[in-house]
Amino acid sequence: MAGKGFTTRQVHERxxxxxxxxxxxxxxxxxxxxxxxxxxxxxxxxxxxGYAYTRIGNPTVEAVEGALAALEGGSQALLLASGQAATSxxxxxxxxxxxxxxxxxxxxxxxxxxxxxxxxxFGIDADFVDDIGDPAAWExxxxxxxxxxxxxxxxxxxxxxxxxAAVSAVARSHGIPLVVDNTFATPYLxxxxxxxxxxxxxxxxxxxxxxxxxxxxxxxxxxRFDPAVSGEKFPHLVAPGRNGAPSIADRVGGDARIAYARExxxxxxxxxxxxxxxxxxxxxxxxxxxxxxxxxxxxLAVARWLAAHPAVASxxxxxxxxxxxxxxxxxxxxxxxxxxxxxxxxxxxGDARRLVESLDVFxxxxxxxxxxxxxxxxxSTSHVQLTEQERRALGxxxxxxxxxxxxxxxxxxxxxxxRALAAGAxxxxxxxxxxxxxx
Length: 439
Ligand code: PLP
Hints:
Blueprint: H1 6-12, H2 38-47, H3 59-72, E1 76-80, H4 83-92, E2 100-104, H5 109-118, E3 125-129, H6 135-141, E4 146-152, H7 164-173, E5 178-181, H8 186-189, E6 199-203, E7 217-221, H9 227-230, H10 235-238, H11 248-252, H12 256-269, H13 275-285, H14 288-307, E8 312-316, H15 326-332, E9 340-345, H16 349-358, E10 363-364, E11 374-376, H17 388-393, E12 400-404, H18 410-423
Parallel strand pairs: 2-3, 2-4, 4-5, 5-6, 10-11
Antiparallel strand pairs: 1-7, 6-7, 8-9, 9-12, 11-12
Helix pairs in contact: 3-13, 6-7, 16-18
Bound molecules: pyridoxal-5'-phosphate.
Residues 82-84, 108, 110-111, 152, 156, 181, 183-184, 203, 205, 215, 217 line the site of pyridoxal-5'-phosphate.
């Protein structure tokens, strides 16, 4: 670039990228990639070879996708800009106008909103299953147009645990996938694909990144799409492409679902992650097991302590023997029960508010899976759009608080809760009613 104008040189002069291999994942923070040879451009547009534009593919993003696919025991992963983007792209890669999905009633409220308010406008209908432990309830909701079952492995709010083997068997018998949101469990505690699920989604904003610094999401696919069994249900995966090009299934076989998501849904709708966010998620994943192990141990200690406190009416933590899904949790989650759960203070909304305002180590915010302990009042925030009756059915009462337990020293968490519960000034509850949720 010698001899060129300052502005020309300002945008073109760079040192060489390369040399010895960097140990940390390099951040390819670039919108696009130059084509070294003239023919490289045509090769990319023809067969997808190499990199061209970060919305379509980026080496930093792919490095993290490789890590996620390996840790979830899947064939491929697709990193996206948020957990919401992951659920949207996963479901839109399976269902179209006129189709139907069957959904657990025990899901993140943002996912419920997506399904009820947005996918419905695309002509995708949904039925919700409340008794998620009963395979017959799932079976009964399936229609000829059903293209997926969707549930959370550990549910947001009441810690319902999904019997993945049983529900995926129902899905398989109809040639459709079970899509599992594995955000709360993380692949360290539970890998749904090993139990029969075919698609896993994550909010990577949570445990995967762990530091609360980024928003991200991911889809991981089992790679077990079988055109002979499911081709009729998913014509977009088996039909020839434009101008008679081979179908996606012909090109990639069992990876047809995720290839369609990568090639056709994500780049067209555009929820691409920033390579910088991808890098941060990749850094987070390197310490996932250590954080989740500690968080789960802390959460169990906090849940036990809360359950024994007279001002606490109930604790919805699958790690406690009194939880309705405890036996299933003990079977599916041998390394820990996760660290997000709800508990209900006996004194109702006023005491819940005083408790939140008195906590010092816990941060009051709408997030979870952070290294720091967090607290939120679902009835007035995440679940505010539901009716009182709907909230009650999901275990969200006026005195319910959701906590996400961090990696702090557990004694500091207990001391914080002890002080705040005292400040909440809950009246002393007679032992005979201490375990009843307020009406
Ligand atoms: N799935 C679950 C279980 C969640 O809790 C959340 C967010 O709280 C999401 C998905 C959405 O993720 P994001 O906030 O990254 O879009």
